[in-house]
Write a structure and sequence with these properties.
Chain lengths: ~250, ~250
């Protein structure tokens, strides 16, 4: 069933917000009489909705009875992500939200290219929160991940460690493959945490700091991946490893 | 060990191409005396290289004896990807190259937004090949994936089916989770194929066409993922499922 976000969701007849209407009626091609599930990301409620009328990007709908929203991330996955240049964090927040991350902590490392402190840091965090909310809406997820930061590398690792039982620092020079340990951790339903360095790489000291915080240095294979590819790949792996066990 | 591409690689003293030099000496911060592995993507040979001198983006190196290049994709993974709008195919080609896809077949479906035929299609294929070569270089992979297309959906499925033993059509309305079957297929080292629809979705008839070609409709979970996220997630899963088995 298609899911779409509607703020201040309430039963009865109403007009859809134009962006939601565009997505449902233009992109997904729903027609009069079609049904979808609307959810309110703030209130965490949802309802069955029927499309009564469509005209351009305007649609009128009937919202049924509210019930608690059900589609949320299955289990904790915390992401420590080193501040990278350009819009890489944007892309990672979007991917990680779709792929079920429950918390993203943005960190500063010695090779992070971007400097962001004070007001500029707060502005960035706001931006990433909006991106996470939008991505959650688009993928039908009721619980966008918490976005925190911008913390120092050590503080970020510590915060992530407090709510995880199995932790890895994905590092291009690590020799241990992540596969066997990750498969074990998912099998025992451990809350997971991953730390990913910036594109300039982590320093040996930062990798050591991660190891001390319980993040085992691990490799995703012999190719050197961009940091944003690492994020999607590792979360995709978690999704597939959990798939069929958690839902069956 | 860091890997970098050098065309027409030969033993002896030479200047690095400026883009390679920039990547190694500026981004990765190699210094005089540091070593890396250079590979020639065309000739599939590689060599140990020592940096003799660095000045701005110019670097002089000594290339050691040539040997066959070793870092290639581990096993066949074919991707049928429906033509999507904007630069989504670019992103998928880049991600899929880093994550070990061996063949990418771009297909047309009835909801593909972009129309590309004749010269325009050939231009696009050329562009995607260049992106795959560049992504392979950057991730240290000696064998960029083959890029083919633009084929009809049925022809693309057929081409992919000929060289795979386990096949899925990732579809947001599928009820079967992909996890258990994919884990089994990787465990028996089956050549894999995945088909992914455009962002407007596959029609019921196209899903049925895929099923007939042996692509089981499967879901990556309850969130509706963007098509480019699906690609990275599923290949990341394959990488992790193979990790530790294939390399140990």
């Amino acid at each position: 069933m298609i899911r779409a976000p509607i703020a201040a969701l309430a039963p009865g007849v109403r007009a859809l917000p134009s962006d939601v209407s565009h997505h449902l009626c233009r992109v997904l091609r729903l027609r009069i009489g079609d049904r979808f599930v609307a959810f309110d990301p703030e209130a965490r409620v949802e309802a069955d909705v029927t499309i009564d009328d469509v005209s351009g990007d305007a649609a009128r709908v009937t919202v049924g009875a509210l019930r608690p929203a059900r589609v949320v991330a299955e289990a904790p996955v915390v992401f420590v992500y080193a501040l990278a240049k350009g819009d890489k964090v944007d892309a990672v927040v979007r991917d990680a939200t779709e792929l079920g991350a429950t918390r993203i902590i943005v960190a500063r490392t010695s090779r992070s290219v971007v400097k962001a402190e004070g007001d500029r840091a707060a502005g960035k965090i706001d931006r990433w929160r909006r991106i996470a909310e939008q991505a959650a809406r688009q993928c039908g997820r009721a619980d966008p991940p918490a976005i925190e930061g911008i913390l120092g590398w050590g503080a970020a690792l510590e915060a992530a460690a407090r709510e995880s039982d199995a932790r890895w620092c994905l590092w291009e020079s690590a020799t241990a493959p992540i596969g066997p340990a990750l498969r074990d951790a998912v099998a025992r339903a451990a809350p997971l945490a991953f730390a990913i360095g910036p594109e300039g790489g982590l320093t040996q000291a930062e990798v050591e700091e991660a190891r001390v915080a319980g993040f085992a240095p691990a490799s995703l294979g012999r190719f050197v991946l961009r940091t944003e590819t690492v994020a999607a790949a590792i979360l995709g792996a978690v999704l597939v490893l959990r798939s069929g066990d958690a839902t069956s």
